[in-house]
Amino acid sequence: MPRYNIFYSRIRNYFGGNELRLNILKAIYRVMPLITAVTYIAVLALLFVWHDARLIRATCYPCIVFVAASIFRKCYNRPRPYEGNDAIIPLISKDKKGQSFPSRHALSAAVIASACFYVYVPLGIIIAVISVVIAITRVIAGVHYPSDAAGGLIIGYGLCALLFLYI
Fold it and tell me: Are 139 and 107 in contact (CB under 8 A)?
């Protein structure tokens, strides 16, 4: 825990000590998940309008992974970095307790990127980059450990890859 405290105090000093940096972080923290969600809705809407058979897989596989990860997350119930550690004060306040692993934002972005890869690879690449940005901002904000964010990406991409490739 002491190494994480040092790691996060450096992040907090860098962003917390500069209002512009903090405001940029807050904007990215809020806007990137919205961009990802809107993109996914648009992709599904287009597939629906085009009567494209890929709609079923692009809808069902991400949902299966999301639900499975959410159940695991509730059972595992890992505390968040700021729980029981007075040295960690999140840059973006959050009242939620537990259920830190895996990061649901990172996982959601990963499953959406996977669906986008399935439909249109260039869009999948763009959303994949955004998914990494989302994962990093969750750590910088102080609401997830790095392993929570990495776990969200790995589980999201890994399980979706298995589903899209083998089912």
Answer: no
Number of C-beta neighbours around residue 67 at 10 A: 10
Q: What is the pLDDT of residues 69-88, one digit of tens each?
A: 999 999 999 999 999 888 89
Q: Which residue has the tokens 């809705």?
A: 41
Determine how many CB atoms are found less than 10 A away from the CB of residue 70: 15
What mean pLDDT do residues 140-167 have?
A: 98
Pull the structure tokens for residue 63: 């949902």
Which three-class secondary structure string do you get for 79-94? CCCCCCCCCCCCCCCC
Domain borders along the chain are 2-166
In the 8-state DSSP scheme, what is residue 145? Answer: -
Query: Could you give the CA distance from residue 34 to residue 158 in angstroms, rounded to a whole number?
Result: 23
